[in-house]
Specification:
With 330 residues, the protein is α/β, with parallel strands linked by helices. It has a single domain, classed as TIM Barrel (Alpha-Beta Barrel), CATH 3.20.20.30. The protein is 47% helix and 16% strand. It contains 15 helices and eleven strands. An eight-stranded parallel barrel has the order 1-2-3-4-7-8-9-11, surrounded by ten helices. Strands 5-6 form a two-stranded antiparallel ribbon. The longest helix is centred in the middle third of the chain and has 17 residues.
């Protein structure tokens, strides 16, 4: 299977502008676009994805990602089925336990048990079945069809669950080959536990990414999103991270302001050291970014979701398409 490249985006622009980005990504040869679902921080993911569906013809459209806490399963089933219908079968339901969408409301994240049960309910609804959820019988009264369900995972147990249950997994473990290798091993364990052949689950590596001829400028620009990506470090053993990186991450977490999640001017972004950037992002010149993605591609991932908060995402897409992707696809 050839590598696929997706573009991850925090919808901090009007839906019409997000749709223009999707159209550009499609024209440049990207296979998918992932839109974050965080109601308090960004424009609505479902509205943005619907706008993208109307401006594109080929590119896959994914929630990047929604969660079981703020969205009832029947609401999500109806929304993703509607997006799939509108886009001609191009929808992916990306779902995780919840991050900024949940934390900004002061709510706890979903447990993995809840994520598992929730996935079964949504899958059943999209199969046209009558299912039970919290004491109620749920069904869809209009024609629906199954949609691929991808888990957003970073911890060992979440990655194993994805291997057991999901159609795909978009995993954020950073850009260190050692970190990514551990993630792939956990997914494979889940597949084995469920009696699924290795490689049953589509493996998409989500990377904080910035590229510019001025490598230092690219690294500076991505620090806001790297603070998000580095959240995956909580699931990595200290001996894998090393003492200096552990200390950098501790200081960053202590300053974290969830209401400025992903923001370049946030307190946490100011504490993202070069060590954190190196461990959790693919950022720098086109050659540097291509080299890092190539290292990870060699580990046998199926694709990448390159996520950014760049002030000029159009220019980054164009640079990736012209200077990075051709080097890695060959």
């Amino acid at each position: 299977m050839p590598l696929s490249f997706h573009f991850g985006f925090l919808p901090n622009k009007p839906a019409s502008e997000v749709a223009e980005l999707a159209a550009l990504a499609e024209m440049l040869g990207f296979e998918g676009i992932w839109i974050a679902d965080s109601q308090s921080l960004f424009r609505d993911a479902w509205v943005s994805l619907s706008a993208c569906a109307l401006r594109t013809e080929r590119i896959l459209l994914a929630t990047g990602v929604t969660n079981p806490v703020t969205r009832h399963p029947a609401v999500v089933a109806g929304a993703i089925a509607s997006l799939d219908e509108l886009s001609g079968g191009r929808a992916i339901l990306g779902i995780g336990v919840g991050e900024s969408a949940v934390r900004t409301l002061g709510l706890p994240r979903a447990t993995l048990a809840r994520l598992s049960a929730y996935t079964s309910v949504v899958r059943g609804l999209l199969a046209g079945e009558t299912v039970e959820f919290e004491g109620s019988e749920l069904r869809m009264a209009w024609p629906v069809r199954p949609v691929p369900i991808y888990f957003a995972s970073s911890g060992e147990r979440s990655l194993e669950l994805a291997g057991r249950l999901a159609d795909g997994v978009v995993f954020q473990r950073g850009s260190s080959p050692a970190f990514v290798r551990l993630a792939l091993e956990a997914i494979a364990r889940g597949e084995e536990q469920a009696g699924r052949p290795r490689g049953s689950v589509v493996r998409i590596c989500r990377l904080a990414c910035a590229v510019d001829e001025d490598g230092a400028a690219a690294r500076e620009e991505i620090r806001g999103y790297v603070s998000v990506a580095a959240g995956a470090s909580r699931s990595l053993p200290d001996d894998v991270l090393g003492p200096e990186l552990c200390e950098d991450l501790r200081r960053m977490r202590e300053a974290y302001d969830v209401h400025r999640h992903g923001g370049g001017g946030s307190p946490q972004a100011a504490l993202v050291t070069d060590r954190i950037v190196d461990a959790f992002a693919a950022a720098g010149t086109p050659g540097e970014v291509a080299a890092r993605i190539g290292e990870l591609a060699a580990l046998q991932v199926d694709g990448f979701s390159l996520t950014t908060t760049a002030t000029e995402p159009e220019r980054m897409l164009e640079t990736l398409a012209a200077r990075v992707l051709p080097e890695v696809r060959t």
